Amino acid sequence: MKIAATKTIEPGTTLAKAVYNENGQILIQKDVRLTKRMLDRLLKFNITYVHIKDSLTDDIDISAPIPEKLRMEAYQTIKHTFLEFQTQGIEKKSFVFEKTGGEMTDMVGSLLDEIQKADQVVSILSDVFLTDNYVFSHSLNVTIYSLALATELGMSRSKLEEIGIGAMLHDVGKMFIPHEILQKKGKLSDTEFEIIKGHTEIGFEFLRSNHNIPLLAAHCAFQHHERLNGSGYPRGLTEKDIHPYAKLIGIADVFDAVTSNRVYRDAMLPHEGLEVLYAGAGDLFDREMVEAFRRTIAVYPTGLMVELSDGRAGIVARQNQQLSERPVVRILEERGEAVVEPYEVDLAEQLNLMVTSCFAADLAKS
Ligand SMILES: [Fe+2]
Predict the structure, then answer these.
(1) How far does the centroid of ligand 1 lie from the alpha carbon of residue 172, in Å?
(2) Centre of ligand 1 from the C-alpha of residue 292, in Å
(3) Residues 139-161, mean pLDDT to the nearest whole number
(4) Which phi and psi angles does 94 have, rounded to 5°?
(5) Given the DSSP bridges, would you call strands 305-308 and 313-318 parallel, antiparallel or unpaired?
(6) Separation of CA 338 and ligand 1 centre (Å)
(7) How many Cα atoms within 13 Å fall on the side-chain side of residue 251?
(8) Among 33-47, 54-68, 98-112, 177-191, which stretch is predicted with the lowest mean pLDDT?
(9) Which positions ≥6 away from 308 have C-beta within 8 Å?
(10) Ligand 1 centroid vs 44 CA: distance in angstroms?
(11) How far is the centre of ligand 1, averaged over its atoms, from the C-alpha of 91 (Å)?
(12) Cα(253) to centroid of ligand 1, in Å?
């Protein structure tokens, strides 16, 4: 099994993992040979990468750290809570969370159990499912990344639970921003950008007046776009005034934003998303948190085609826990020629070797 960029796949290729919609219904069954129509449909729904079959890598297991069923339940919990918030409007708040708050807390607990049980680094690229709204899937991904990062930082269970709720609700203010602005393809005008920035304050006001929601969750919504050097919004807070939870959620937020497909651009691969974080480490983002984040995610997800610094190329076969940028690679090509017998190279042992490029990424951009 390997990961391939949807737009580079030839019709006739066999799908190795089913593609679901957000209700858990299968849209395309695994083992189906993809037709041109199916491929167009995947692209239309912003599915940039899928898992395909390939005889040399069929034994490579790309299992997701969070079971698909739980991911979909979590997506539904978020969707349903956010939509209820939206229909009730900004004024009538307290009663919704009483009803769904318990559900959300339970969901954070279940996600946390899975994250802590998984002996593998988090790779959201391994879960392919269609979503109908970016804010919902983004809130879920940010929750998963934030919980993984907070776990890596050694935070206590009660803090982890607070962070989970804060992460799930960090963008709730977007439910009150006009859809046309959120989904706009072209450049935003200054006024439109100001309106979008307002989701932080709206979220804060909304959450803090709801007595069933921890006040810290309201502050996560308020502060997740603040940056250490004061260049963030809405208040331009600096390092010492930004709550650690907001710093952490801000990192998860940026990473998911750049590695997800958006209306205005293609998704980056995880190693490119990390480069964005590293470029801002110290100025925008807490450096220690960025380092810890790198340890928790699969920098080169299993199944990805990579090229090594000595010219050999292959597919990521397994992850090395705690050395997320040095996985085990199954070599399929040497100097551009297919090898007769594929073999594996462990980058955690061969420290002179480096990954120099990822094919799915290069092809995806062409
Ligand atoms: Fe946000």
Answers:
(1) 8
(2) 22
(3) 95
(4) -60, -25
(5) antiparallel
(6) 46
(7) 37
(8) 54-68
(9) 314, 329, 345, 353, 354, 355, 356
(10) 25
(11) 21
(12) 7
74: CA distance to ligand 1 center in Å?
A: 19
Dihedral sign (CA 184, 188, 191, 197): positive
Mean pLDDT across the stretch 350-356?
A: 93
| CA 138–ligand 1 middle distance (angstroms) | 10
- Please give the distance, rounded to the nearest whole angstrom, from the Cα atom of residue 194 to the centre of ligand 1: 13
Is the pLDDT at 363 greater than 60? The verdict is no
**Sequence-ordered list of residues with C-beta below 8 angstroms from that of 13, at least 6 positions apart, any chain:** 4, 33, 34, 52, 53
How many angstroms separate the alpha carbon of residue 11 from the centre of ligand 1?
38
Q: Identify the top-confidence range among 20-29, 277-286, 303-312, 316-325.
A: 277-286
Share of the chain above pLDDT 90, in %: 52
Q: Per the structure block, which two tokens stand in for 242?
A: 């930004």
* Residue among 168, 151, 82, 75 nearest 113 (CA): 151
Gyration radius of the chain's alpha carbons: 21
Task: Please check whether residue 90 is in contact with residue 176, taking contact to mean a CB–CB distance below 8 angstroms.
Answer: yes
Q: Encode pLDDT of 214-251 as tens digits.
A: 899 999 999 999 999 999 999 999 999 999 999 999 99
How many A from CA of 236 to the centre of ligand 1? 15
What does the pLDDT read at residue 86? 84
Report how far ligand 1's centroid is from the alpha carbon of 63 (Å): 29
C-alpha of residue 29 to centroid of ligand 1, in Å = 34
Q: What is the pTM of this model?
A: 0.88
Average pLDDT of span 322-342: 91
Structure confidence at residue 42 as a pLDDT band (50, 70, 90): confident
What is the Å distance from ligand 1's center to 199 Cα?
7
Cα(35) to centroid of ligand 1, in Å?
37
Considering only residues 292 and 44, tell me which one the structure prediction assigns the higher pLDDT.
292
pLDDT (0 to 100) of residue 362: 41
